Structures are given as C-alpha cells and as structure tokens.
Amino acid sequence: MVAWRIAEVRAYVIETPGVGGNYAARAPGHWIVDARQANPMSIYPNRTDLRTGGGDAAAGILVEIEGADGTVGIATGSGGIAACAIIEQGLAGLLVGADPRDTAKAWDQMYRTSLPYGRKGVALMAISAVDLALWDLLGRLRGEPVYRLAGGATRDRIAVYGTGPDPTVHQRLGFFGAKVPFPYGPSDGREGLAANVRAIAAHRQAVGSDYPLMVDCFMALDVPYALEFARKVEPYGLYWIEEALHPDDWEGYRHLKAAAPWVRWVTGEHEYTRWGFRNLVQHRAIDIIQPDLMWCGGFTEALRIAALASAFDVTVVPHAGGVYSYHFAMTQPTVPFVEYCNTSPKGDAIPSVFGAMFEGEPLASDGTITLSDAPGWGLTLKRDAVTLRRFAA
Of 21, 19, 14, nearest to 77 (Cα)? Predict the structure, then answer.
C-alpha cells in the first residue's frame, strides 16, 4: 500500500530556548545553569562552567517524518546543526521510499552508513532522533501508542525519581527518590571534597534516613577521588553514585564496584549502542546502566540494550528522556523506575520536560507516570510555541 511509504524527512534546529530535547540549555538564573555542578572539565581551575548540550553545537532538534498519506511522525532530540546535516544529507536518503514498519532495517542501515564518521556522539544523536520519529509515525499509522507496538504494558503506572537542586521537593510530591548535583570537582582540592561530603550530609538530614538519595558526578572524577568520596559518605546511605568516571573507563567502574559495594555505581547516559554497553554489562562493571533514548540510538537500540542487560541481571534505569523513556520503561518489567529531570527554573515545580512545544506530554502525579492510548508518543507539536530553523540541505 502507498500509505506504508516514507515521503519526506525534515530536520530542524530548535531556536526557542528552554524547549525540546536539549533540556540542559537554559537561560541564566535557571538551576540547571546556575547550580554548581562538577563536570569533565573540573580537573582544571576556572573551567567549571561546562553544561551538557550547551551552545549551538548540540542544540535541540526536531525531526519530522512524513508518510505518503500525509501522516507525520515527530521527535525531539539534540545534536544541533551537525545532527540536522547528517539527517538531511545522509539518513533521509535511506528512508524516503522505505516502509516505516521496517524499523530494524532502517536502524541498521542508518548505523552502517554512519560508521566512517561517527559510532558515538552526534551521529548517534541524529540516528536516535530519526528512530524516535519513525516509531511515532508508525504508531500514528497504526493508531496505537509506541509501547503497544513494542510488547505492550508491563504495569499500570511507572515510578519516578526526581533530579533537581532540592530533594525535599520530590520527596513531598511522592517521588521514589531524588538526585542532586555533585558540587565540586578535583581542582577544588581537599576543601572541595569536604564540601561535597557536607552537601550530601545536609541533603540526607533534609530528607531523613530512609529516602533514596542519589548524586550525579557528571564524569568529573577519577577512581581514587570517587573511592575516597564513597568512603566518606558511606554513613549517609546514598542509593547510588552516578557517572563518577568518563564513559570509556569500564575497568575503573569495575574497580569501584568491587572496592565500595555498599553503594550502587551507575552510568551510561553518555554511552551509545549495545556495543558501547557490552563491556559494562558482560563484565558486570556497573550496578545500573542508564541509556538515554535521545542519544544511545533511539527506541530501537534501547530495546536491544535492555535485552543485553537482562541476560546478565543488570538493572536498567533510563537517563531522562521524558516520554520516550516512559514508553520504554512501560515495556520492560525489569526497569524499576524512570528519571524526571526537573526543568522548572528553581527546581520546585513539575513542568513538561520538553517545555511548551508539545501537548500531551505526561506528567508525574503522586510520584508516578501513567501513559495514555494516544497514538505514537502521544505528543502534538505546538508550532506557535517554538521557532524552528530547517537545515538547508
């Protein structure tokens, strides 16, 4: 049937601040920008201002895939102009004329064609956004939500933990747990390490002894620093320490897991594809992996990553991802909860993860998410709420 053909693929850079898949790009005064957060540059004095996705290089993008009957699948992601160029000048040529039901074939061809220039990073961000839009198109054509297309629901509601500057906000709202930033990096020396420990002690006192409390180190540390920090905060019962090391140091993670088993070690938001996660999983180097569906290869690849992890009894908790992560978790009985990245300016409200650009984005109520039966991802683009600039192919 002609309906089962892709007619056009379009990629746009999102120019409106504070909306779309690049939820880290915020105006000054927003907690994501202003909160002190250690990062990979924190080994250098006065180089502590790095933000994931900051600037045009990884700006938010929107992808539209139009079927022959005029149905349009949409998805947001990141990667900026570079991702849009990859999509319009490379990936679109593989998809136009193809059957949108062939998601596995589409993914494999997109990945293989990108091998010469990008097996991680922006190339996979581009593939992820296209894959997510393809699943949305397929859901709209079939009249079903994405999770129904990928195995159906494994539960009625999905538990959520919150990420923000004040864990008591998410505790009051019934979230499973809360994750806070890791303030100081190695260049801050012994005083910075002591301040990090004091910060955890203060958060633990604020939420009480039993509430799950996590900390995000954002690839800032090395093995000795991470291990010393873990020992000093052991009395405060952290639920996990996230992304302590850079993504390629899976041997370092294995050492941390063996040397400090009283805390969970988690990572994966900056890892890509099932091959990127293989060492972490097969060598049991980590307690929990965190694929980001807008980066790791999209919904198609996240399902494969989950299958790999389940064979080794490694827990999967997707990183952020909003509605994409919710649909993914709904299909996976071994995903215990998902992340809600608090995008309100002060981290004290519960707005849509992607801002005002969509209608239909599900929000947490009493600390859980419920998905509707709306087709695809259930999102409707509000074009009057966002400025889009199409990449000039």
Answer: 21
**357: which DSSP letter?**
G
- Is 30 among the catalytic positions? no
Give the CATH number, domain containing residue 137.
3.30.390.10
| Catalytic-role residue among 30, 170, 270, 319 | 319
CB atoms within 10 A of CB 262: 9
pLDDT in tens, 293-320: 999 999 999 999 999 999 999 999 999 9
The rounded distance, in Å, linking the Cα atoms of 275 and 291 is 12
Q: How many CA atoms lie within 13 A of 75 on its CB side?
A: 37
**Residue 151 domain-assigned (yes or no):** no
User: 312 is written with which tokens?
Assistant: 């080794």
Does residue 1 fall inside a structural domain?
A: no
Kindly state whether residues 175 and 214 are assigned to the same domain. Answer: yes
* Model pLDDT, residue 26: 85
If DSSP codes are grouped into helix, strand and coil, which group holds residue 136?
Answer: helix
The rounded distance, in Å, linking the Cα atoms of 114 and 120 is: 10
Same domain for 109 and 245, yes or no, is no
Tally: H helices and E strands in the chain: 13, 15
Select from 205, 84, 71, 83 the least CA-distant residue to 139: 71
Separation CA 326–CA 128 (nearest Å): 16
Which stretch of DSSP H or E encloses residue 307?
helix 298-311
Flag whether pLDDT at 213 surpasses 70.
Answer: yes
3-state SS, residue 26: coil
**Host domain of residue 257:** 158-381
Same domain for 178 and 75 = no
- Interval 260-290: pLDDT, tens: 999 999 999 999 999 999 999 999 999 999 9
Q: Are residues 78 and 200 in the same domain?
A: no
| C-beta of residue 135 within 8 angstroms of C-beta of residue 95 | no
Model pLDDT, residue 303: 98
Please give the pLDDT value at position 129.
98
The count of domains in the chain is: 2
